[in-house]
Amino acid sequence: MTLSETWFMEGYIDFELKKYKLLAYLQDVKKYFGETKLYPQLSDVIFHYNNLIAFRDNKKILQDQFPKRIDNVDMKKVELVYEQMLSDNEVMNELERITQYSLDEMKGAISDGAGIYDFVEKQLHVEPIGIMPLYKNEGYMLLRYGTYTEVRAYNYVITLFEHQKDRFKGIKMQYLNSWHLSISNTYEQIKRDIIRYNPTLPNPAVYSMDFPLSVPLDETLLPIAKRVLVRHIETAV
Questions:
Q1: How high is the pLDDT of residue 88?
Q2: Which residue, of 96, 127, 138, 155, has the greatest Cβ tally within 10 A?
């Protein structure tokens, strides 16, 4: 189940109706968390939580503070509905009840997801492979997890982009190939194979990332590994 960006102020504004809609949504979120699947559920519930915070604290919906996924036409509709709501104290009181209840419930779900995230993050071991170049914003990540000998190789590119007054780093990854780790086929050997595969980077930055347990790859391990890698490269001397 999904929620629209403005689910709490759509249709009939009734606390009980919105409560059950929210609880059904969070039940699905927690089901995925119970399977150790974090994404996209964790980012989605954080998105809705931040929207409610903006609504509660600002008492006015501004385009740069409310859902980034809403286009200009939808934003005008939302602002019109909001202006109508402001003139109805009963509706506004009901919205405040819905907002506060939803924030409390979402906070619990976010805490559950954050606990899984922190556990995975702390167990991830990052290690540079071989001689590292000065330029590390492009290279390869070698990911292995659980009891598997399979090593999945990804090309990564770290990019810098700006939003208003803030600057952010993003990372793009593309799966290359898989190797099996062994005494004769070490990370260093895999690095040499990759260089032969792509000679345009004769001495690329290569990092191994090992996780001791089996968790969902696409929904949990890979998204966290991306963030850990960016932070590791930022803080490495």
A1: 52
A2: 155
